[in-house]
Design goal:
CATH superfamily of the largest domain: ADP-ribosylation/Crystallin J1
Helix content: 40-55%
Radius of gyration: 21 Å
Strand content: under 5%
Oligomer: single chain
Shape: globular
CATH class of the largest domain: Mainly Alpha
Number of domains: 2
Largest sheet: 2 strands, antiparallel
Order of helices and strands: HHHHHHHHHHHHHHHHHHHHEEH
Number of strands: 2
Strand order of the largest sheet: 1-2
CATH topology of the largest domain: ADP-ribosylglycohydrolase fold
Length: 452
């Protein structure tokens, strides 16, 4: 069954996904309009099973951890002296960035809109229409841009209305990773991730790749004895690929900040933990994006040069991957373009190569924002959100990185005060939760891992 959309939509998205992976899809037929039920669709999906690769195709991408990290060189030694404030800063920054981007996670800001403007220009226009550009505060509720057809959402996340961190998947997954780390340490498996979701995460709170993996995992495990499931061959690949054309989208990389906190100062360990979580639902660049972001944030706890953090994170993903290629192109543009809008406009052009919630283009938006910021929290999170695309995810990732880089002192009171140190996550054990208390628990996990 299709979990996020109908199988007709899944079929079309799978065709695009296979093309992006380098397969020759010229032989894939269009679906007949007279298909009466989804059971008939199952037969049509088989056409994707044995497609040849296009020639030439310049990328080589693995789903195995060892080939991905075989060239990794640890440039930063593990540092046991990181102060707890940097953990608080990282989580607080994540919450701030998420809340800044959440009202703009809407159609006009994703990419080319019905208004014939790129999504990033619509973000700019909303703030301009409220006389609040450049972005230095939360999204205003009113703007003259509404007369042009623009709009924002999530009333409780708008400037003047914020009283807490609103429930959001970018925050929920961070909290779930804390539960997993406290229970299993670094020795969890993708199977443990699936059980964690089934035990703590209601189905209606997942989307795209996570929705399909959630369903696939239930289908594959309900009739097996629990002790056999982790050792049953084929389950992992089925869970992350069956009817899942979203397997290289952004979902995995928004789940891994907690692993970066646990492995603070150790980007390789952060990448390894992110790999295990991401592999439950994603493949290839969906996994690489998770590994890259986790390594980059882990580096920021002790490496204070943003470019070096990015370069270290590049070491944990394959040089032969699409993600690596696009990140390098992004870095080159940011170094060449000194003007914010010119930089965003040039990067934006190749971000349109992918769905607006894909891992590759959103990772590039994060890299561009961090590198352009030169270490300034306000510039970084506002630039991440200015890019449009998946605004709350990118704001959260960049905010997390910048908080780990500078600690809570890098985050102005005007960002932090409206949150009232409170997360309302809709998860049973974190509703409500204190940002400071959760950060302290991550610090405790970090200290426990250091002992081992």
């Amino acid at each position: 069954m299709g979990g996020w959309e109908t199988l007709r939509v899944v079929y079309d998205k799978e065709k695009r996904q296979r093309y992006e992976e380098g397969y020759d899809v010229s032989s894939v037929p269009s679906l007949p309009l007279d298909i009466k039920n989804e059971w008939d669709m199952q037969e049509y999906m088989k056409v994707f099973d044995h497609l040849p690769l296009r020639k030439p195709y310049g990328y080589i991408e693995s789903n195995e951890f060892a080939p991905i990290t075989k060239d990794f060189r640890r440039l930063i030694p593990l540092n046991p002296s990181i102060q707890s404030d940097y953990f608080y800063g990282a989580l607080l920054g994540r919450c701030v960035g998420c809340m800044l981007g959440k009202p703009l996670e809407l159609g006009p800001y994703f990419w080319e809109s019905s208004l014939q403007k790129p999504g990033w220009k619509n973000v700019k226009r909303w703030f301009e229409g409220a006389d609040q550009y450049p972005i230095r505060d939360y999204v205003p509720s009113r703007s003259r841009a509404s007369d042009e057809g623009l709009y924002v959402g999530y009333e409780t996340c708008l400037r003047g209305n914020i009283r807490f961190v609103e429930t959001d998947d970018d925050i929920r997954y961070t909290l779930l990773s804390l539960l997993l780390l406290e229970a299993k340490g670094k020795d969890f498996t993708p199977f443990d991730v699936g059980k964690l979701w089934h035990n703590h995460l209601p189905y209606q709170m997942v989307c795209t790749a996570e929705t399909q993996a959630y369903l696939n995992f239930a289908e594959m495990t309900h009739h097996l004895s629990p002790e056999l499931i982790p050792y049953t061959t084929g389950i992992q690949d089925y869970v992350r690929t069956h009817h899942n054309p979203y397997r290289e989208w952004i979902g995995a990389q928004i789940r891994v900040d907690g692993y970066a906190y646990a492995a603070a100062g150790n980007p390789l360990l952060a990448a390894e933990l992110a790999f295990k979580d991401a592999s439950f639902s994603h493949t290839k660049n969906g996994v690489y994006g998770a590994m890259f972001c986790a390594a980059m944030i882990a580096s920021a706890f002790i490496e204070k040069d943003v470019e070096r953090c990015i370069q270290q994170a590049l070491l944990v993903i394959p040089q032969s991957s699409r993600l690596y290629d696009y990140i390098e192109r992004t870095i080159a543009i940011v170094k060449r373009q000194q003007h914010l809008e010119s930089m965003v406009e040039e990067v934006w052009e190749f971000l349109l190569d992918f769905d607006p919630t894909h891992a590759i283009n959103n990772t590039c938006a994060c890299v561009a924002a961090i590198l352009f910021s030169k270490g300034d929290f306000d510039v970084a999170v506002s630039t991440a959100v200015l890019f449009g695309l998946d605004t709350d995810c990118n704001g959260a990732t960049v905010g997390s990185f910048m908080g780990a880089l500078g600690g809570s002192g890098a985050i102005k009171v005007s960002w932090s005060a409206p949150l009232n140190d409170t997360i309302l996550s809709m998860l049973p054990t974190f509703h409500p939760a204190s940002i400071r208390h959760v950060a302290q628990r991550f610090y405790t996990v970090y200290q426990e891992l250091l002992k081992k």
